[in-house]
Amino acid sequence: MYITRHGTVVLAALICFALSCIQATVALDTDIQEGCPANAGQVQRDIQQRLFSVSTAYTLENEDDGTKSQTELDTQLLSASNLESAVKQGKLRLHVYPPVSNHTVQKLVLGSCNHQLRPQPAWRHIEKQNPDAFVWMGDIVYLDLPEMMNPKPFKMFVPPTEETFSAYYTMQQKQKDYCPAIRTKIPVFGVWDDHDMGRNDGDYTYPMKEFSQQRLLDFLDIPSKEELLKMAEQAGGYRNLSTLHRAWLGRRLQGGVYNSHVMGEPGKRVKIILLDNRFFQNSDTQDMLGEEQWRWLQRELEDAAAPYGTDAYKRGGAELVIIASGIQIIGWGKLLGEGWRNFPESRARLMNLLAKAASPYTTAGRTPPAVLLFSGDVHFAETARTFTCTIRDEKDDHLRQCTSDEIRAIMTQLGVAPEGLALKAFSKLKWGGNSTDTKEKLPNVDLRRVQITPLVDVTTSGMTHSWDELFKMVWPLTPIVEAAFPVVNRQHMTNFFYQQSTSGFGPWENPVALAATVMDAIVPTIGGDEPEPVDEQHREAQARRAPLVPALTEKDLEVLRSQGSYYTKRNYASLEITWGDRGVREAQGLSTTGATTSWVTVRIHSADSGEPVLVYPLPFEGLRGFKLPSHDAKKVPRGLIQESLNQCLKEAVDRSVAPFVLSKTIALNILFVGFVFWTIVIVFVIRRFCSRRKQVAVGATEAIKRKQQ
């Protein structure tokens, strides 16, 4: 049988696919074994009940006319069945407040994109790190896959059946390493993304979302709705349930899987907020979360920043707020994928809420909480940073986003000008509502009302599979893939397309030096003192002293000397906190003079070895909003202010001119990928055509020779 070279390639590809199926089946046989105790679910519930033992107040809101008092609502809730029907009919809105624990967090581990049919080496490494909790950030399992014994190579995503939900979630629950190392040892929190919801890039239109929500809660070992309603009846009503059981019941009754937890003593509290970016996502209205979830998030952030001693602080206050989303909030590493950048109005709304929570203006009587973002989805690890500019209006409790003209006015007053790609952003303004005419009078901006908020988004994604595996499979085409998808540059990102698409806020240099610079610039400002002049020599000295932070190990320092902002192999993240005493002193009403600051050290770990591959030590001060000192512009740390205002300008321009934030650069990337693809196709067709012509010519020549003989 005659097989061409191209036929050989196709045959090889089919063989590789078959081997992959066999490998997956072998992984299933070797990684899913008996040994998970039958009562593992009850063990996980007991762990959380012992941990979240603090009793807090709750609120029910009447959706009819708002006239019922809390007492009347409590009376109505004496019957658990009345509660369920009232919530379903929309008569009552149940705000699910977080369960609260007095256990102080030292370490958390977060992960996403975990294929239930693949080997899962990360769990044994996570167990050795002894975290206080594990947080799922989506794609816990992959439900929308072809059946193992009936693969469909040309149909990547197959809608799951009800049986698929149960089978795959149960498979992960009983995974031989996950069950003993995580499920039966530490509290597990989680939220979904698209594949564990049941549809790739799923949104509010997914018909099985309510069913899928209940299956996810089953996986997280939350008691069933029927069990919780029965407990409420036996306790004499919803109001008599523990805070944890009220939260569990609320999550069973609400739409969506968003949730929050609070851990730590006052002054050392961590609040974990998990956002549901699927249940309500609507691209037509440009809404990522839905109004119900937006209201919940606003209240959770307001409570996080509440003054010490108030009921709001007791039920949800914190010194560090962790916001986790299934898809990237700031990161741009996967240019053609999903992300909050495709919902610019929702992204701006989220940034405004975060700025208010971290604001020195709106947290009277206390230092505002630090805010740190985490995301998943993209099958690699990335760290991205941006800044957002807000202005306090006449009412001290309200912040709004700066316009691009206002940012230009701020830069003019401070004597700085747009640089680099931020300068190029001005060319976009001709499509927006702001003028670029330098002769036009800029608005008057009171610098005392301006706040700059740094936002850091740590992406950790790919516990069982990553882009690196794909790059190895197509190694002959690696140069082409590198040009089209910049993430293939492994840990050190220097690709031109990435630098263009991120508009200049690409890889950090030495994160220790960055942290020291941020501390130099921000700590005096928050304290109300004038910042000291910062020269290069002083900055270098600070950078040398920064590695003495207790949370850093020798391995961390080794990584810091050479790391970039990316890691494209299998990974997960840990978050370790070195607590200072500033928060505790404030909570106790003591003076904070000489108080020590807290640090959070984020590490990206290799899922195969457990070793850190990226390390980011960050002071809490570098994760809070800061005011612009207006008394003496000469003493403003120029580098930080220049960088932050450049990025604020870019953010403002994007909001005004890009309904889908599809910039020229991304369009060029799409064009380039298309060009490469069609070039390969055309070359293949031409070579195939020429090969056929050659075969015909050779055959004709041989036929002529035979006739002549």
- Kindly estimate the percentage of residues that lie in beta strands according to DSSP: 5-15%
The tally of beta strands, per DSSP, is 18
Morphology: globular
Distance between the termini: 28 Å
Sheet of most strands: 10 strands, mixed
Mean pLDDT figure: 75
Number of helices: 24
Low confidence ranges: 8-31, 63-69, 148-154, 428-439, 482-535, 537-548, 631-636, 658-668
Report the helical percentage.
Answer: 40-55%
Structural class of the secondary structure composition? alpha/beta
Radius of gyration: 28 Å
Description:
By secondary structure, this protein is of the alpha/beta class. Helix content is 41%, strand content 14%. The chain has 24 helices and 18 strands. The strands form three sheets. Strands 3, 7, 8, 9, 10, 11, 12, 13, 14 and 18 form a ten-stranded mixed sheet that branches. A six-stranded mixed sheet has the order 6-5-4-15-16-17. The chain has a two-stranded antiparallel sheet with strand order 1-2. The two termini are 28 Å apart. Residues 8-31, 63-69, 148-154, 428-439, 482-535, 537-548, 631-636 and 658-668 have low confidence and may be disordered.
How would you briefly describe this protein structure?
This protein is α/β, with parallel strands linked by helices. It has 24 helices and 18 strands.
Main features:
single chain, alpha/beta, ten-stranded mixed sheet, six-stranded mixed sheet
What's the layout of helices and strands?
Elements: H1 5-31, H2 40-51, E1 60-62, H3 70-76, H4 80-88, E2 92-94, E3 100-101, E4 107-111, H5 122-129, E5 133-137, H6 162-173, H7 178-183, E6 188-191, H8 209-219, H9 225-235, H10 243-253, E7 259-263, E8 270-274, H11 291-304, H12 311-316, E9 320-325, H13 344-357, E10 370-375, E11 381-392, E12 399-401, H14 404-414, H15 420-424, E13 450-459, H16 467-473, H17 478-484, H18 496-501, H19 511-526, H20 536-545, H21 554-560, E14 566-567, E15 571-578, H22 582-587, E16 599-606, E17 612-619, E18 626-627, H23 638-657, H24 664-708
Parallel strand pairs: 3-7, 4-5, 5-6, 8-9, 9-10, 10-13
Antiparallel strand pairs: 1-2, 4-15, 7-8, 11-12, 11-13, 11-14, 13-18, 15-16, 16-17
Helix pairs in contact: 6-8, 11-13, 14-23, 19-20
